[in-house]
Amino acid sequence: MSENNLQFEYEGLHVSVNYNPSTNSVTRTVTESGKQIHHDELTFDKSLVGSFEVMSAEEQAKIATAWGAAGIKSRIEDGRLGSTKKA
Fold first, then answer.
1. Are 45 and 3 in contact (CB under 8 A)?
2. How far is CA 25 from CA 41, 48, 61, 67, in A?
3. CA 41 to CA 24: how far, in whole Å?
4. 12, 14, 35, 64: which one has the fewest Cβ atoms less than 10 Å from its Cβ?
5. Predicted local distance difference test score (pLDDT) of residue 86
6. What is the pLDDT of residues 24-70, one digit of tens each?
7. Residues near 35 by Cβ (< 8 Å), separated by ≥ 6?
8. What are 10's strand-pairing partners?
9. pLDDT number for residue 47
10. What is the pLDDT of residue 36?
């Protein structure tokens, strides 16, 4: 697994977060029981991290993927994704 890719299981869902430094975008995919239930692509706001531009590529990727993962975790916890999704 590269620094640009983060995969983990959360509340029974498989989450994949990929950072593309050339487009500064984060792609997030969530699957449940092998079926894709969410996919999106977001632009990472570099201004969120004051010294982002001077960090190594590995550090930038870790921050961007963690940011993308946190957003997905919040959606799952809020019941907006998965079989426990609230109506």
1. no
2. 7, 14, 10, 11
3. 10
4. 35
5. 54
6. 999 999 999 999 999 999 998 888 888 888 899 899 999 999 999 99
7. none
8. 13
9. 85
10. 96
> What is the four-CA torsion angle of 58, 4, 63, 78, rounded to 10 degrees?
-160
At residue 20, the pLDDT reads: 93
CB 49 within 8 A of CB 32: no
Q: Can you read off the two tokens belonging to residue 79?
A: 């019941």
What does the alpha-carbon distance between residue 82 and residue 85 come to, in Å, rounded to a whole number? 5
Cα separation, 35 vs 57, in Å, equals 32
Q: Is 86 exposed, middle or buried (0-12, 13-18, 19+ CB in 10 A)?
A: exposed
Q: Is 42 within 8 Å of 26 (Cβ atoms)?
A: yes
Q: Alpha-carbon distance 35 to 4, whole Å?
A: 23
Residue 72: which pLDDT band, with cuts at 50, 70 and 90? very high
